[in-house]
Amino acid sequence: MGFPSFSSFWNSYLMKLLPGWPEYQTLSDYYFSLLLVFLLTFTAEFCSNYPISRQNDDRRVTALGGAAALRGLKMFMTYLAIIAIIATDFVFLLAAVGGHAAGNFAAGLYQYHIEQAESTLYNGGYIFV
Fold it and tell me: Residue 50 carries which DSSP code?
């Protein structure tokens, strides 16, 4: 089967980490790997644009801890995607860029719907103070 060639330098490290890969890889494995890189970068981009809730001062430390954990998860996923791109070919780079673009778009839509709900809730008269 004709698969794209892999970098020989990174391929030696990849073969130590995952013995038998890419020689015994089928076309469905290749597409599944592309999907995983896409989902990894989608989730990393969505986490980086995730809105932080505005809490009062007694819950601020908890909110900051959650934000720090989310940032750590985002950086882990981003570096994992970088390793996947370096160890494979150009198509994985395209899947990663597409995942980042789709994640940014989804996070923007999510933020827009949150802002619309908040403006309707507070300005539309649902809360009587």
Answer: P
Residue 33 main-chain phi, psi, to 5 deg = -65, -40
Query: 129: burial class by Cβ within 10 Å (0-12, 13-18, 19+)?
Result: exposed
Taking the C-alpha atoms of residue 40 and residue 46, their distance in angstroms, rounded to an integer, is 10
80: Cβ contacts below 8 Å, ≥ 6 apart:
40
pLDDT of residue 129: 45
Q: How far apart are CA 61 and CA 49, in angstroms?
A: 20
* Structure token digits, residue 55: 């809490």
Reduced to 3 states (helix: H, G, I; strand: E, B; else coil), residue 47 is helix
Q: At what angle do helices 27-48 and 60-87 cross, to 10 degrees?
A: 150
Q: Record the pTM.
A: 0.69
Q: Which of 42, 44, 62 is nearest to 52 (CA)?
A: 62
